[in-house]
Structure formats: C-alpha cells, structure tokens
C-alpha cells in the first residue's frame, strides 16, 4: 500500500534527523514525509508522549521509528539494557516493523531484535543479554521472557505501542500494562492506534502516557473515510419502521445491520420486516450462545441478509460484506456510534450508514456530530416524508433538509486534547481526553 503524500510536505532533512537516518531514508526511496510523519516526527523529536491515530499504510512505522532512532543515536548510550521497545499485536506486524527498522538502522551501529511466539526462547534470551538496543515484540512472548527476568527495561528511552486498539481487542490489555509498568518511568511513550475513539485505548493512554499533554493527530473522522453517513428524520417509531423497510427494500447492499438500543425493540422489528419478504435475523443478549452462533453463521453465509442487533451482541462482529448500517435508534453516545458504524466500510469496502432520528433524539444526534466534529448528510425519502423536519432554527437557516452544501471532511489538524477535569470523576482516572464520553456503558444492559 502506498501512503498518500502531498507535494507541500516538508522534506525529511527539515526535521534535522541524524545523518545515517537520512541516508537510509533516501536509500528506501522515501522522498517526502507522509501526513502522519509530518505531524508525529517533530513532536516525538521533542521527546513528547504522543497519542496518534494512524492506520496501516499511512507510513506510521517510520513515523515512530525515525524519531526513536534519532534519540538512540544522539542521546548518550546506556551501559546495559534495551533502549527502545516496540509492542505490536501480531507476529506479522512485528516482523514488518523489524524489517523496516533494520533498513533504517543500516548506516548505524544500533542492533535490532525481534521477539515473537513460536521462535526459539533461548535465542531470544541471548539476544536480550547482548544488550540489543531496539526490541520489537508481541506482548505474550515478551512476558514469558520477563518471568525469567531476562529483559531489562530500566534504561528504556522509548516505549512504543503500535496498533494499540488491536492489542486491546486481542485481550493484551493487562500484558501491555504489566510490560509498561516494568519500564523506566522517565521514558517517552508513543501510542499508535487506528482509532482514538476506542474506549480501551483512551483508558490505556491515560495509564501509560505520563505527560499532562496528550496530543492527537488527525481528526476523529479519519478512521471512517470510506463510510458515507446520513440522517433521515422521522415522526415516531411507526414512521421509522416504514422508513426502515423502505431503505432495506430500495438500497443496494450485500448485508445490512440494523441497530436498536434494546432487545425488545430488536425483537419487535423482525415481524414487520419479514412481512416485507426480507430475510431477517435478530441478535441480542437474551439469546443463548447456540442460537447466536447459528444466527451469525446464517448471516455470514448470506442466508440472512439483514441482521437486527443490540450493541453488545454486535461487539466483535467482523463479517465481510456489511455495507449498510442503519441506526433504528440513535446510539446513546459517540463511542457507541463509532462502534456501530465501524461494522461497515472495513478495510477496502465502502459503507453507508443511516441514522433514523425522531424529534426527541435530535439533541443526542447533534451531540454525536459535535463529538465527531462532523455534519452528516441530511436525506429525505420522498415517498415517506413525515411532518417532522428537524429543529426549527436549523430549518430557518436552510440547514435542515439537505440544502446545506456537501461537507468536506475537516482538514487534518494536529489537535491538542485538553484534559477535562469534570470527566475525571466519571472515569476514575487521572487524565481524560475530552473526546471521551464516559457513559459508554449502555450496551452492558442489552
Ligand atoms: P506503514 O503504514 O508504516 O505500514 O507503511 C506503509 C508503506 O509505506 C511501507 O511500505 C513503507 O515502506 C512506505 N512508506 C513509509 N513512509 C514513506 C514515505 N515517506 N514515502 C514513501 N513510502 C513510505
């Protein structure tokens, strides 16, 4: 995958990186820094802790390796121990980082090592004992080695958590924290994640990033570039049901996922939709695991094209071909909204998401738009136009019913997330970026 680079980007040499690194960059054929490199490298060179949103393919590996290697070259060398540790969720990713690190260190004396499960334990212990400066590891095997007291991270200069959201989804949260807690407290920490709106990532950032300033690069929008987001206003739930049936019968999709806020609502939609000859399934927390698995199988195989689900039931649902997500109920907060729409438009797929919004949900929906720093496209279904047209003051200014010009994604800006002290009570943690909506607990009830 080739990263997108604008021709207005500064050159790598403007970052004043150590010479051996500039030579390696040139040998790799990197002409200009990618957006994430432009923003992260100067800040990381200032030895700041960073929370960075970046996907695979954005050039994120060099964004954290280059400033780290620069520190190792320019800071006084330590007598023993690892100086930079990169944690990655999978062997494959660790291997990719290792390869790139070897290329970038080609003109230095720095040694790079890799620690992943499945490889020889003894060899890995020996590698660590040789004071390899940079270690790329998956958390599981590294912890096993730590139990034998081989690694020494008391002199660590930089800790990097790559694809933190994936590490958390794979259940590495405790392991990552144990490793981070064993590292030099004066270290720099760089936390990279595809999305910053992953609740676990925000909690993790709160625990491992020591500086009082958390810096986020990219707008929240960036994680969902391939999803078109629309709003259709509705008079009430009956009207919503008609709109839902219309959309499911008229939109083009392989698989559709419909979200409700409650099990009762999920169940109540099935009958009317089946009446429309749609192949519909329901997934919620009241069903036993066997039924849930069967339902998922039918959905995965395409036997069922429409699934109605609550948040908890849909968690972790990674099914190919979901290209329509309909929020029958507006989710209770922005984090839930992100989780829901994240079920569509995965990787290279395009997705459409439509929220059905009645008057009592309008404020909630606007809150989600503000949270995401986005305005969704207003859409009217001519055949089923209702009385409710959105709040009056928006209507007067022409903003309510799709009159507004197409909204371009916000320019990517380096954005400092301020600490909002009044959120601390809810989260029970020291620092909380303002993007957190701590009431993200409703789906436990589904
Ligand atoms: P990553 O997102 O780190 O997995 O990088 C994706 C691909 O982009 C890798 O093959 C890198 O070698 C390449 N890459 C990283 N930075 C640049 C750059 N500034 N110019 C061109 N290619 C790059």
The helix count comes to 17
For the largest beta-sheet, the strand count, sense and barrel status come to: 8 strands, mixed
Ligands present: adenosine monophosphate
CATH top level label of the largest domain: Alpha Beta
> What is the fourth-level CATH superfamily of the largest domain?
P-loop containing nucleotide triphosphate hydrolases
Strand content: 15-25%
Q: Average pLDDT, to the nearest integer? A: 81
Poorly predicted runs of 5 or more residues: 218-223, 394-446
Total beta strand runs: 15
Anisotropy-based shape? elongated
Question: Cα-atom Rg, whole angstroms?
Answer: 24 Å
The residue fraction in helices comes out at 25-40%
How would you explain this protein's 3D organization?
The protein is an alpha/beta fold and 446 residues long. It folds into 2 domains: 16-216, 3-Layer(aba) Sandwich (Rossmann fold); 227-384, Rossmann fold (3-Layer(aba) Sandwich). Helices cover 37% and strands 16% of the residues. The chain contains 17 helices and 15 strands. Helix 6 (139-147) crosses helix 8. The longest helix has 15 residues, at 60-74. The model is unreliable at 218-223 and 394-446 (pLDDT under 50). Adenosine monophosphate binds at residues 1, 3, 5, 30, 33-34, 37, 56-62.
Fold blueprint:
Layout: H1 19-28, H2 35-45, E1 50-53, H3 60-74, E2 84-87, H4 91-104, E3 112-115, H5 121-129, E4 134-137, H6 139-147, E5 158-161, H7 164-169, H8 173-181, E6 188-193, H9 199-208, E7 214-217, E8 227-234, H10 237-250, E9 255-259, H11 263-275, E10 280-283, H12 289-300, E11 306-309, H13 311-314, E12 322-327, H14 334-341, E13 351-358, H15 362-372, E14 377-378, H16 392-396, E15 414-417, H17 421-427
Parallel strand pairs: 1-6, 1-7, 2-4, 2-5, 3-4, 5-6, 8-13, 8-14, 9-11, 9-12, 10-11, 12-13
Antiparallel strand pairs: 7-15
The protein binds adenosine monophosphate.
Adenosine monophosphate binds at residues 1, 3, 5, 30, 33-34, 37, 56-62.
